[in-house]
């Protein structure tokens, strides 16, 4: 079966050989695409392809010639086989004609045939031919005499010129005065048979018919149609209906026959049969064709490979030189880009650094002048924040360009994003005397997206509008144009951008006007980051602008629809009183340690300091602390290693306080066993919030720390299962809650189970 399938496949390949060779050409084009990319002169590939095409055409012509020759020989054999069958049909029909013709001539000679005389003559004509079913006489077309009588007496009285199925052929025989063969029919006397009509005329007057009924199945056996099957041929014999011209099948080997048949016509008395024949396995010897196809493909590729090998070796030195030149050019471009980046970055970093150093020097000269000290401190803080934003922007651009920036897809509420946006900019716009408007047309507010990056995009774009608009209005419109398709349009009446600058708006460190011209600070990285983030989220961004007319930014996003139930509930952390909490600070930088200890002490926290991981582990073993603030990059033992060591003997809350500020750094810290993450430079609001979260509640039963519980709340400890409420927390002997035990009883039971 496998070889048969291969043979048929090869047959199709040859039948459509020129078309299939085009596929081969496409394959070779792909094969040499590597060279096409690296060679300056593409003429090499063209020559190889031309050679391949020429070889393919030659082998195709040869294969087609052989194929056609084989088909022609097979058709000659099939034609001879069919003609042999037709000869047998004609011989049989000739013998039948002689039988009906004898009766015809008897009547035309004037002899009157009574039924006894008819039976006598018909019995001799009947003979031993199994295909002869009935001999009939039909004066004026009405059957009156039949032989054998007993089996066929039901036919007596049938008017052949009036009976629906038979009248057309009988009338044709009468009108043409010629033998007419018609059928097969379902016979009145039973079975299926064909009728041979012989019209009888006496003195030019129509007398009737001499009819021979041919047993159809026996007739097919007599002409040896089964020999065609034995010779592995499929066939169908058909004729056309005289009235409708429809195709009527009178014999066939099977219902499903290949359409690529050989048609041979067989002329019969007043009729025509069509023989269609085809070898069961097609006209082609599949093994020969398979060999030809394999040989053709091998020749094509071997010759093409030889040409390619020669051409490629000839071009090898030139390609190598071209590649070296290309690499040198790329290196120069990279070096130039690096220099431009460092120049721009150096300029933008020096500006806030100059302010920080300058105002620090002014403070030293004006110690005791409270008003000036406050003013200088405010400007130092503003410049520091600008410098931090610049560094964060540079790091984010580096992550995006290196492909390390990824999306954190979660269910979120677009209205929450817009509420956060409005809370930031409504006040700023009001202070500048601007009209601020945010409108929406959203059917599905709950979507899957990276909420943080989506907020960052909107914050950057709207922030630019607020910064560069002195008067007028700012409008934000978010619309769901189709299900899951969102469009954000931010318009302002600010200073705008020139048409010449617009193509450069998304370039790094690109600003049409400097800060001295606009009195607005900016890194020139905002729109570059926005475009990269939009593309990371598979969205699009377009900007249109006119000088002094304003700017319009259009962004399109596709978000999958989410359900409200899929949103993660953001629980606000309850800020607790941290006074008296004992903290161990692991920090190798003395300056950072001094700042952190001072800030933490201002909140009433007791802080001990160690400078590496080894000392941190030792200190936790020797003293009892409420929490550890752990730097990551420390000498001797880093923060990750120290955490793993501590987790071997203690479950004390550990919070990373590190300059490793990216999401993957946070996830790594949590996976190591830390309880939280604070990024440097530290924001004390975030520090206090994080400490409140990890120090909120220490389970009174197992002594483990849990989140968001404690006095005044209701929570189940994930370690021991103790369910606490306010009353039980204050009175350890009070029974109640889901535990049905007092704190004292539950603790005794827990300790007993864990002895």
From TrEMBL:
- Tell me the Pfam families matching this sequence: CHASE, Cys_rich_CPCC, HATPase_c, HisKA, Response_reg
Report if keyword Hydrolase is assigned.
Answer: no
Q: Which SUPFAM superfamilies does the record match to this protein? A: ATPase domain of HSP90 chaperone/DNA topoisomerase II/histidine kinase, CheY-like, Homodimeric domain of signal transducing histidine kinase
List the keywords (alphabetical).
Kinase, Membrane, Phosphoprotein, Transferase, Transmembrane, Transmembrane helix, Two-component regulatory system
Asked if the Swiss-Prot or TrEMBL record annotates the protein with the keyword Ribosomal protein, the reply is no
Q: What is its EC number?
A: 2.7.13.3
Q: Which GO molecular function, any one, fits this protein according to its record?
A: phosphorelay sensor kinase activity
Q: Where in the cell is it found?
A: Membrane
**Which reaction is the catalytic activity of this chain?**
ATP + protein L-histidine = ADP + protein N-phospho-L-histidine
Record protein name field: histidine kinase
Originating species: Holdemanella biformis
What high-level taxonomic lineage is stated for the organism?
Answer: Bacteria, Bacillati, Bacillota, Erysipelotrichia, Erysipelotrichales
